[in-house]
Amino acid sequence: MIMIGERINGMFKDIGKAVREHDPKPLQEWAVKQKEGGAHYLDVNTGPNSEDQTVDLPWMIKVVREVSDLPLAIDTTDYNAMEAALIEYGKPGAVINSIGCEQEKIDRVFPMAAKYQADVVCLCISKSGIPKSADERVALAMEFVANAEAYGLQPDNLFIDPIILPVNVAQEHASEALETIRQIKLLSNPAPLTTIGLSNVSQKTPHRPLLNRTFAVMAMAVGLDSAILDVNDDLLVDAIASARIILNKDIYCDSYPKVFRQR
Amino acid sequence: MALTGLDIFKQLPKTNCKDCGSPTCLAFAMALANGKASLDQCPHVSEAAKENLGAASAPPVRTVKVGVGEQEIVMGDETVLFRHDKTFYHETAVAVQVSDTLSGAELDAKIEKINGLVLERVGQKVAINLVAITNCSGNAATFKAAVEAVAAKAQFALLLVSEDVAALEAALPAVAAKKPLIYAATAENWEKVVALAKANNVPVVVKGNGLDDTAALVEKVAAQYKELVIDFGSRQQAKTLAEHVNARRLAIKKKFRPFGYPMLAWTSATDPKEEILEATTYVAKYASIVVVKADEKHHLLPLFAWRMNIYTDPQKPMAVKATIYEIGEVTPDSPVYICTNFALTYFAVEGEVSASKIPGYIVAVDTDGASVLTAWAAGKFVAEPIYEFVKDCGVLDKVNHNSIVIPGHVAIISGKLKEKSGYDVIVGPQEAAGIPAFAKARYPQLMK
């Protein structure tokens, strides 16, 4: 399970302020702290208050990389800012986060992914919104896979996100998202990777950590490969480590929760 | 591995006509991938697509058989790259070479020697599987005579080795009933050799030159005949290893049909010890046949043992034969140790009894290969079955005492066992590592 640390995001007040003032300290503290939590990637997002993402996003990349060698998930829908960030990143292995299933976005982003050897988070969401049924979501996933081939990307360069909505207001979506993940793993060989914005499942509920970790293990059982999540939620990471053991993904040892965080 | 949705979708007409009952071709493809629909439900799918999908759902490595009756060898039908993922199914066949330059008494002696290459290991018969008659003479008539002489006497399946079409044509018909494997169809001769194989209904080795060349050749041959074994043609260990690994990966992971056949490897080392080491690599890495020159039992036994170990099923516990084992020079005074027939348990006890320097009998009770505590928990290593086994195996007829030593972990059964059997039941140490100290303290008079 690839854990993408969600915390360096301008939606959080401390990061939003740091981005406006170009103060590297909060970003760098969270980079270190999330690595300690076991993050495999760090998500980087300017937040909505950035005046110019083409300036702020590369700056964020630069200061995070000063303290961390983890690969980054570059989180924006401004694809000029994305390209500037990829140039600043300057090596293969970044993740472009994200695109929806619209041909013009695919045509803009897939060539960029191929050029900078980056992977792409693909959201199962189309111009007409978020589909409800698993079948409709899988159809969008297939669009991405078919397009990837045309642009020289492999299916496993894609992190397909079936989209999860909060269970308090969109309860019927979660089970459809789980079925989508299961089917995406049957789409192609190699199969596309799957990811999820985990914390979304519990927005505005009083049981966030409980819902997050319960959904994480359920999604892993149907083939979830990665998630954008709170890596400093210890109970969540313990649950993920345990699910990996139960799924025979990691070899058991008595100290597996600790070992999982060290990888 | 099952077909993916994308594989199926690519073969569908993409009409989204709903005639199959699914809303779109993609939904239908996913239903097929999930096993919820059958291809016949689509009236518009082409014959070519049906054939492609049928072939793609065939097993990744084709089953090919050589020989008849007891000499039959089944090759291929493997599904994993690592035995711990499931198991390897069909043991590598060992072929020993005989040159057709031998004749008369020399040849008879060689055949007799080869027929003797049958050994016993842990209660099982292990042997070579094929005699490879090589056309070293370069003469078709000589080859035919040698093949017939070997076929008449050898107790193993045959591998006819000649790239000369005339030699194979001369030798094959008389021995075709024994279903030999013929070697080899090459880029130069394949049309004739494959026609010969087809006419006589025998499998044939396709010999290429490296991965690309062999794939191209197999593709041409497979259009006409599918009873094939592949030889990549290289005679260097590292290169052969790499080719085997790549080919088997492609066959299993990517369903690459040209490599979906059993593979044959030749050893190239001249020293028999090095040759056996080389052969162990091929046994571990996917060869269905390995052809060697070594024909001495002491060279071949390690290769047989290795093959047996690699091809055991890792999901099943390794068991030793349930019987009496004599460790060292036993006398009627020697102690009798009781353990289970789980290989790990037995060998742990055997090692320690041997290290104690006090000869002893070990009775490996039949527990279906379960360990002491597992068998105890399952009721297979308790008073009644132990008593029955010890009584039936007759170990106490060999000694002048009436005592048996049981594992310390099952001390709890000692009372009932004593009552049941009337034996003097001695509770030994919990771990086999304690046996030397236990034996020295208990039987000082037997120390050597």
Automatic annotation (TrEMBL), chain A:
Its EC number is 2.1.1.258. Keywords: Methyltransferase, Transferase. Residues 1-248 form the Pterin-binding domain. One of its GO terms (cellular component) is cytosol. One of its GO terms (molecular function) is methionine synthase activity. It comes from Methylomusa anaerophila. Pfam families: Pterin_bind (PF00809). One of its GO terms (biological process) is pteridine-containing compound metabolic process. This is 5-methyltetrahydrofolate:corrinoid/iron-sulfur protein co-methyltransferase. It is an enzyme of class 2 (transferase). PANTHER family: BIFUNCTIONAL HOMOCYSTEINE S-METHYLTRANSFERASE_5,10-METHYLENETETRAHYDROFOLATE REDUCTASE (PTHR45833:SF2), METHIONINE SYNTHASE (PTHR45833). Belongs to the vitamin-B12 dependent methionine synthase family. SUPFAM superfamilies: Dihydropteroate synthetase-like (SSF51717).
Automatic annotation (TrEMBL), chain B:
Keywords: 4Fe-4S, Cobalt, Iron, Iron-sulfur, Metal-binding. Residues 1-59 form the 4Fe-4S domain. GO terms for molecular function: 4 iron, 4 sulfur cluster binding; iron ion binding; methyltransferase activity. GO terms for biological process: acetyl-CoA catabolic process. InterPro entries: 4Fe-4S_dom, Ac-CoA_synth_d_su_TIM-brl, ACDS_complex_subunit, AcylCoA_decarb/synth_gsu, Dihydropteroate_synth-like_sf. The keyword Iron-sulfur applies. 5-methoxybenzimidazolylcob(I)amide binds at residues 345, 369-372, 432. It comes from the Bacteria. [4Fe-4S] cluster binds at residues 17, 20, 25, 42. PANTHER family: ACETYL-COA DECARBONYLASE_SYNTHASE COMPLEX SUBUNIT GAMMA, PTHR36214. This is Corrinoid/iron-sulfur protein large subunit. It comes from Methylomusa anaerophila. The lineage of its organism: Bacteria, Bacillati, Bacillota, Negativicutes, Selenomonadales.
